[in-house]
Amino acid sequence: MSGFHTNSKVIGWVEQRLPIFSFLHHSAVEYPTPKNLNYWWNFGSLAGFQLVVMILSGIFLAANYTAHTSLAFDSVERIMRDVNYGWFMRYLHANGASMFFLLVYTHMLRGLYYGSYKAPRELLWWLGVVIYLCMMGTAFMGYVLPWGQMSFWGATVITNLFSAFPVVGKFIVTWLWGGFAVDNPTLNRFYAFHYLLPFVIYALMVVHLWALHTVKSNNPLGIDVKTPQDTIPFHPYFTIKDLFGIGVFLMIYMAFVFWAPNFFGEPDNYIKANPMVTPPHIVPEWYFLPFYAILRAFTMDLWIIPAKLQGVVAMFSAIIVLLFLPWLDTSKVRSAAFRPIYKQLFWVFVADCVVLGYCGGKPPEGNLVMIGQLATAYYFLHFLVILPIVGKIEKTRPLPASISSAVLKPMEKA
Amino acid sequence: MAEPASHAQPGGDGQTRRDFLLQATTAVGVVGTCLSLWPFIDSMNPAADTLALSTTDVDLSSVKVGQSITVVWQGKPVFVRHRTPDEIAAAAKDDGETMRDPQKDADRVKKAEWLVLIGVCTHLGCIPGGQKPGDSRGDFGGWMCPCHGSHYDTSGRIRKGPAPANLAVPPYTFTSASTIRIG
Ligand code: HEM
Ligand code: FES
Question: Which of A34, A145, B21, B179 is the most buried (most CB within 10 A)?
Fold first, then answer.
């Protein structure tokens, strides 16, 4: 924290009592950042920005929203029609959730490609996975709040997943509902937790950044920072780059908000929830589709394990497996740039997730059942079999001596 | 801070009374904290007024043979079908078939012509179709769930698709020849 000086008496006075200025200087100004970061490194700050947008728009929605089964749907319609800029708050929030997942998925894939989960960043990666789980919970409960048909039936299907667990399953579901079906008690508690969880995410993000600033950023070469020549200070180089990223992101985000606000939405959710009528085709939001496909991939009972339980366990395992990734990937080399086989497998994995997402969005009929099953098998094969083996047998390309030598080489040639 | 040796319990390999008190207090504190979580957890279980909604009376006199009605019990749909003799015969005939959740038709009804079921698919909770005249009743003439394609027979037993169990029979009693009380 040596780099902080001030001539201001006021700042000095505060600093002696609470070293907040030197802390900010240390972590947002002089933080040594690898000089070779590419644009994939923008997505962390973008996700942080989006979390703030979600909290802001959410609080202003909450000011006009009523969490009661008989009023919720109408209160959202009132927000859309009567509240000044209510439509804007709601479209910011609804499309914002999709954007948030888009950013976080990109952020996570960046980590997969450049091996950012490997030592010494395992805890950083874990915190990310926990944030992702909380996001899923938050988004799931948020989607229930407008109390449309998809809200209601999505909530019914997903909470019913827990009934798959033997013996305790039924009690868990009743407990989650606070009744014998998704009803007013369910809506109320979902609202309470939907309000709470983003702030938990916020706290987790602070710890995530704390871990980051302890182990420092990875970079596209995946090699350690060796000398001060390898880094540049965060400010102004990355403050400006992150701001630029936010500008580009806002153009895309606002294009949806203003010109295609219901692009990610389901028409059925503009029909008020009716516990007596199931819509013909229940689909979750797009960001849950790959997991929905994994859930449905299990169609046969094995011994005493019913298909439904297999699907539920597989769906949760699909996320839990990420926690083991730092040890499942046995390669010492982080970046896919130097791993010719993994580099291709990475894209196969991305394609596999897209296929899963496609299957999850369609009714499980015909070939799609089998395709979904194969894609599910591959998802787990990738983590549990392929990564451990490839890490051992792959011949990696030679790593550059340092970040600065790799950065300067193309310039010498020119 | 090391305790003077003289404070050690005789034969207690260096364990002091203070260590014991500390461990005992910690144990009580941990158990107490865990127990105090219970009110928070239990507050999420169904409340008294939710439980109080737990019976529904149904008048069957206007339901003709072959008709079905859907009533609400505990926020859930309950199917009441006035079965035709053919449907009853079909259900009884299939008693011997291999099923995922084997049950005799006679064990699922109080009076053979009245089939009373909780209209919630045992897979993931959608409402199976088959109540309205235009609905598809699936391959076994009972109900079919639109969500993931579970087929139920004329006794509400699961015959095809992902659902693990038969449509549940709610607790009910005939309060007169033509009325039932569910719950
Ligand atoms: C991690 C951040 C958040 C995510 C991912 C998220 C996600 C969602 C989603 C998907 C919906 C349904 C949108 C729709 O289709 O209408 C929703 C609704 C809602 N959220 Fe959030 N939310 C977040 C934070 C918050 C916060 C912090 C609050 C309040 C302080 C809030 C309050 C609301 C309210 C009142 C609604 C109902 C109004 C509506 O449906 O538009 N949200 N949220
Ligand atoms: S909920 Fe009925 S088949 Fe899945």
Answer: A145
Closest CA to A288 of A115, A157, A128: A157
Determine, yes or no, domain membership for A9: no
Q: Is A145 in the pocket of ligand 1 (CB under 6 A)?
A: yes
Interface contact A161, partner B, CB < 8 A:
yes
Nearest chain B residue (CA) to A182: B75
A356 in ligand 1 pocket by Cβ < 6 Å?
no
Q: How do residues A208-234 score in pLDDT, each as one tens digit?
A: 999 999 999 999 999 999 999 999 999
Q: A51 and A44 in contact (C-beta within 8 Å)? A: no
Record: contact A278-B147, CB cut-off 8 A: yes
Give the global pTM: 0.89
- Interface predicted TM-score (ipTM) over 0.85: no
Domain that holds residue A387: 30-413
Q: Are A37 and A220 in contact (CB under 8 A)?
A: yes
Asked whether the beta carbons of residue A156 and residue B126 sit closer than 8 angstroms, the reply is: yes
CATH code for the domain in which residue A50 is found: 1.20.810.10
Quote the CA–CA distance of A198 and B89 in Å, as a whole number: 57
How many domains does the structure of chain A reveal? 1
- Judge contact between A282 and A150, C-beta under 8 A: yes
B176 touches chain A (CB under 8 A): no
* Domain membership flag for residue A25: no
pLDDT tens across A25-78, in order? 999 999 999 999 999 999 999 999 999 999 999 999 999 999 999 999 999 999
For B84-135, what is each residue's pLDDT tens digit? 999 999 999 999 888 989 999 999 999 999 999 999 999 888 999 999 888 8
Beta-bridge mates of residue B79 = B70, B117
Any A CB within 8 A of B47 CB: yes
Q: Which residue numbers of B are catalytic?
A: 148
Closest residue to atom 40 of ligand 1, CA basis: A146
Choose the residue to mutate in A51, A93, A197 for probing ligand 1, maximizing ligand atoms within 8 Å of C-beta.
Answer: A93
On whether any CB of chain B is under 8 Å from the CB of A364, the answer is yes
A285 as an active site residue: the answer is yes
Query: How is residue B149 written in tokens?
Result: 């394609």
- Compute, in angstroms, the gap from residue B51 CA to the centroid of ligand 2: 26
E strand or H helix at A184, and its extent? helix A184-215
Q: Give the model confidence (pLDDT) of A369-387 as tens digits.
A: 899 999 999 999 999 999 9
8 Å CB contact between B175 and B57: yes
Is residue A18 packed enough to be buried (19+ CB in 10 Å), middle (13-18) or exposed (0-12)?
A: exposed
A252: which residues sit within 8 A by CB, 6+ positions away?
A99
Closest partner residue to A180 (CB to CB) among B75, B124, B145 is B75
Residue A10 covered by a domain? no
